[in-house]
Amino acid sequence: MTKSISLNAILPNLLGDQLPPIELKIDAYYQGAVNCGIRAAQAFFNEDEAVNLHAHLPACLHHYLNVLRQSCALIESSASVWNQHEQSSRDAFCAGYLGRIQQELRIIRPPLHHYGNAAAMH
User: Superkingdom of the source (predicted)?
Assistant: First the structure.
């Protein structure tokens, strides 16, 4: 049996042995966007306590998309490249950002090993 190559982006294990890497439902093509989201979330942890998460994520996402849009402008047919990748890049960035936040929360409060409380999922 041959080992299959992952076609999904990975949220790497950044916190030691406590948490394994997580395979995201994001195409591996967007791993760079995931990594930018991870770095932005790490910056949130390093920021002053006055920074709100609900303000930090949109500001970081806006900055990332502006940089990406400017990069696409350097490519021929930039409008079609941008249109093709904007939403996927946005989703990948957010998956990296929120995944990194989730890693931190899992360290603080490990997941429960029972699934009896369905209300928590709604």
Answer: Bacteria
Express each pLDDT in 58-89 by its tens digit: 999 999 999 988 877 777 666 666 777 888 99
Please say whether the beta carbons of 82 and 106 come within 8 A: no
pLDDT for position 12 = 87
Query: What is the domain partition of the chain in residue ranges?
Result: 25-109
CA distances from 47 to 15, 79, 106 (A): 19, 35, 20
CB 47 within 8 A of CB 56: yes
Q: Model pTM?
A: 0.77
Lowest mean pLDDT among 37-51, 64-78, 94-108: 64-78
Of the candidates 81, 45, 86, the residue with the CA atom closest to the CA atom of residue 66: 86
> Which tokens in the block code for residue 21?
């890497």
SS3 10: strand
Task: Select from 10, 27, 11 the least CA-distant residue to 102.
Answer: 11
Q: Which residues pair with 29 in a beta bridge?
A: none
